[in-house]
Amino acid sequence: MSVERVCVIGGGVIGSLLAAHLARVCDVSCLVRRDEHAAALGRDGLRVSGKSDFVATVRASTDVRELAPFDLAIVATKALHVDASVAPLAGLVPDAAVMTVQNGIGSEKVVQRHGAWPIISGVTFMSGTRHSDSHVEYELDTPTWIGPFAGTSTSPDLVEEVAGLIRAGGLAAEALPDLLPAQWSKLIFNSAVNAVAATTGLPHVRRYADTTEVDDLGHVVRGMMDEGKAIAAAAGIDLHDDPWEMNVRAVSRGSTSEGEYAHPPSMLEDVRSRRPTEIDFITGALVREAERLGVPAPLNAALYRLVRGVEASWGTPGASP
Questions:
Q1: How many C-beta neighbours within 10 Å does residue 208 have?
Q2: Domain CATH for 15
Q3: Bond prior to 296 in cis (omega within 30° of 0)
Q4: Contact at 8 Å (CB) between 74 and 146?
Q5: Is beta strand 144-148 parallel, antiparallel or unpaired with respect to 119-124?
Q6: What is the per-residue pLDDT for 257?
Q7: Which residues, 6+ apart, have CB-to-CB distance to 156 below 8 Å?
Q8: What is the pTM of this model?
Q9: What domain count does the chain have?
Q10: Which residue range(s) make up the domain with 203?
Q11: How many Cβ atoms are within 10 Å of 255's Cβ, its own excluded?
């Protein structure tokens, strides 16, 4: 299979960064939710600033039938929206492959409900800021890991080809024969960082790694990650990276001579905007695995339920804004 035409589903930060960089090396279309978003991309192109600086030409529509055919669909929506986003592809592009890049675990199984496509699992740590429908700022240039969806016959050659395209477009990417260790590393990292951000309102800053004083927030973060590592061990997962070390590196990378960069995790942005979070796919997924395997995970369970409580507060009379 040769990948020459890519459709990126979702126009947030990750979808925009992938679409713009891939448009340097292949034909790229973008499936978005709003007509005005599609119109802006068609009129202005897709601008990237920050770590990269260019304007890409992409086709865009709210109707996938106007964008087909394509060789690869990259589903870059939030996990909550994968089902509705992939459903229109059913029967439309039977020879395509589908790649997921959601937080948490479980998106690939949602994709499988709609077609027998080869599925590539993706894990990305790159991040940025979406300034408008046609402008995204590229801030954290960490790699994207991709691999065949576990238990399927997705070709490693296809995975390597897609990783090569991403690299050729100017982003960091690595093809792995088994992505589960990387997925679980990020799952455990996200379970702590996103849930803590959503409940405290605090961006991902150095305080997340502080463990010197008895009241330091890092104790909670590390405790959640230690629980996650115990769950992974019980599941037979040999982690790609240690989540605590990932956390320490991330907050260190965010510090500059001009001060500390306060990166807002996606779940914090959702809470600020009173949007449903991905907590069920991240911390909730880890808690369910802990229950299935009989591994204690009281901190993750508590934060999971607290975030659900935060969501419930939005529709409760008398709750604080």
A1: 24
A2: 3.40.50.720
A3: no
A4: no
A5: antiparallel
A6: 42
A7: 148, 175, 177
A8: 0.87
A9: 2
A10: 180-312
A11: 12
Chain segment 209-228, per-residue pLDDT in tens: 999 999 999 999 999 999 99
Among candidate residues 179, 192, 159, 207, the one with its CA nearest the CA of residue 297: 192
In a domain, 317, yes or no: no
Look at residue 260 and tell me whether its pLDDT is greater than 60: no
Residues 6+ apart with CB under 8 A from 296: 227, 230, 290
Q: What is the identity of the amino acid at 171? A: L
Sheet holding 119-124, edge to edge: 59-61, 27-31, 5-9, 72-75, 97-100, 119-124, 144-148, 173-175
The CA distance from 22 to 223, in Å, is: 39
DSSP 249-302: HHHHHTEETTEE--B--HHHHHHHTT---STTTTHHHHHHHHHHHT---HHHHH
Report how far apart the first and last C-alpha atoms of the chain are (Å, whole number): 51
Amino acid at 160: E
Pair of tokens at residue 142: 């960490």
Spell out the residues 6+ positions from residue 68 whose beta carbon is closer than 8 angstroms to its own.
7, 92, 93
| 221 and 139 together in one domain | no
Separation CA 293–CA 231 (nearest Å): 7
The CATH code of the domain that includes 217 is: 1.10.1040.10
CA distance 149 to 189: 20
Residue recorded with tokens 């807002």: 264
pLDDT tens sequence across 19-43: 999 999 999 999 999 999 999 999 9
Whole-Å CA distances, 73 to 6, 18, 166, 239, 319: 6, 11, 14, 28, 41
